[in-house]
TrEMBL record:
Domain Enoyl reductase (ER): residue ranges: 60-387
UniProt lineage: Eukaryota, Metazoa, Chordata, Craniata, Vertebrata
Provenance organism: Sphaeramia orbicularis (orbiculate cardinalfish)
Record GO biological process: negative regulation of mitochondrial fusion
Coiled-coil annotated residue ranges, if any: none
Keywords: Oxidoreductase
InterPro entries: ADH-like_N, ER, GroES-like_sf, NAD(P)-bd_dom_sf, SV-ATPase_mito-regulator
Biased composition (Basic and acidic residues): 390-402, 411-429
Protein name, UniProt field: Synaptic vesicle membrane protein VAT-1 homolog
Keyword Oxidoreductase attributed: yes
Gene Ontology CC: mitochondrial outer membrane
Positions of region (Disordered): 1-44, 386-429
GO MF term list: oxidoreductase activity
Superkingdom: Eukaryota
Length: 429
């Protein structure tokens, strides 16, 4: 598909729902007629409101994700739906892939990205009994979370612990569900085992490290650049390895000649082959990404071809003879809602017990989405990168000194306002 900008796709119509207070002596207060009530509902249904959203307008570089303001109507909630005012969103590597057209589950542009967030419920469907307006919730969705208000199915929303911040709520679901499923549902990590975690300073890496600490005597090998070693060591990595200057296979063999029990591989290509070679007998390799495909802002066909060419290829006979297991995990393709819900409940329990805690690397306003994506793309982050829908507050401008050219100051302010307006496209649906 072309990388050119596509026209803005109309997203599901949404609006903050706030009951109007009728003035004293009004028909609403004293009991209005059915006709008046119907007329009022008709007016309410046609009210509109602005909604800020980050829209992928085409495949390519950072400039393809644009902040747009859409005028939307009041959402008509169906059975099982809730309306959430989003306070924080998570940025995942999948969004970097999606921007390059490498994430199959993301609809074609124009589309609002984002798979996780946290916020406050503003309206609920008539049939919903376990949640109410005002509840703070964590929300999962296939896409569409990078906007101020969103309508989601109630089973994809989870009540937040009182002590959890909105940033932590947005940082938890994708990374921790991925790590939890791989470690405990697939690899069945038990006391005394050893785990290799690639990209140990990333969101999934930190989540996996923390979850390993909930099992007694688990040894963690973690790859990361040298500047991040102190942080990941404090977080629970037993043996940090600088993958940029050392061969991590050799380093692991020096410490553990037999290798490791579990390898979590988000890289793909030749690293998958190395991971398989590092497994002990009865060990498990879990592939859950192909980060080696992403080397620049835009799609790199050479990197993709190299990763594909070096991918691990095995027959069942070789697996049987090696006494090793190879698994694949992709949360986006996991359709078992009950399994996901049970894992989320467990993770929230662990958070409440103080055994896990999302590490927030940085938070960026929607206007700063390019900086956020660049930080993750260049692997500068240690922990989760968060996006905040709330508009960035303008810095208070200094008052002119006596005798200063006030007209010049006002002209400069007008120029700055025009530049800011260019960044945010206000378009009516």
């Amino acid at each position: 598909m072309s990388g050119e900008d596509a026209p803005t796709q109309q997203q599901p119509e949404q609006e903050q729902q706030k009951p109007d207070q009728a003035p004293p002596g009004s028909p609403e207060e004293s009991g209005s007629s059915p006709g008046a009530t119907a007329a009022k509902e008709e007016v309410e249904a046609h009210k509109t409101f602005p909604c800020r959203a980050l829209v992928l307008t085409g495949y390519g570089g950072y400039d393809k994700v644009k902040l747009q303001v859409k005028t939307q109507k009041k959402p008509q909630l169906k059975a099982g739906e809730i309306l959430v005012r989003v306070k924080a969103c998570g940025l995942n590597f999948a969004e970097l892939l999606g921007r390059q057209g490498l994430y199959d589950l993301l609809p074609s542009p124009p589309v609002i990205m984002g798979m996780e967030g946290s916020g406050v419920i503003e309206a609920v469907g008539d049939d919903i009994k376990d949640k109410k307006v005002g509840d703070r919730v964590i929300v999962l969705n296939r896409s569409g979370m990078w906007q101020e208000v969103v309508v989601v199915r109630t089973e994809r929303a989870f009540i937040m612990p009182d002590q959890m911040s909105f940033e932590e709520g947005a940082a938890l679901p994708i990374n921790y569900l991925t790590a939890y499923m791989m470690l405990f549902e697939m690899a069945n990590v038990r006391p005394g085992k050893s785990v290799l975690i690639h990209m140990a300073a990333g969101g999934v890496g930190i989540a996996a490290t923390q979850l390993c600490q909930t099992v007694q005597d688990v040894t963690v090998f973690g790859t990361a650049s040298a500047a991040k070693h102190e942080t990941i060591s404090q977080g629970g990595v037993t043996h940090p390895i600088d993958y940029r200057t050392k061969d991590y296979v050799e380093e692991i063999r020096k410490i553990s000649p037999k290798g490791v029990d579990v390898v979590l591989d988000p890289l793909g290509g030749s690293d998958t082959q190395k991971g398989f070679s590092l497994l002990k007998p009865l060990g498990t390799l879990i592939v859950f990404g192909a980060a080696n495909c992403v080397t620049g802002q835009k799609k790199n066909l050479l990197a993709m071809a190299k990763t594909w060419y070096n991918q691990l290829s095995l027959g069942t006979m070789k697996l049987m003879q090696a006494n090793k297991a190879v698994c694949g995990f992709h949360l986006g393709y996991l359709s078992d809602e009950e399994l996901i819900s049970k894992a989320m409940v467990k993770l929230l329990e662990l958070y409440s017990q103080g055994k896990i805690k999302p590490r927030i690397d940085s938070s960026f306003r929607f206007e700063e989405v390019t900086d956020a994506m660049r930080r993750m793309h260049e692997r500068q982050n240690i922990g989760k990168v968060i996006l905040l829908p709330e508009p960035k507050k303008e810095e208070e401008k200094p008052k002119p000194e006596p005798g200063e050219n006030v007209g010049k100051t006002e002209a400069g302010a007008k120029e700055n306002k025009e530049e800011t307006t260019k960044e945010v496209k206000a378009e009516e649906a």
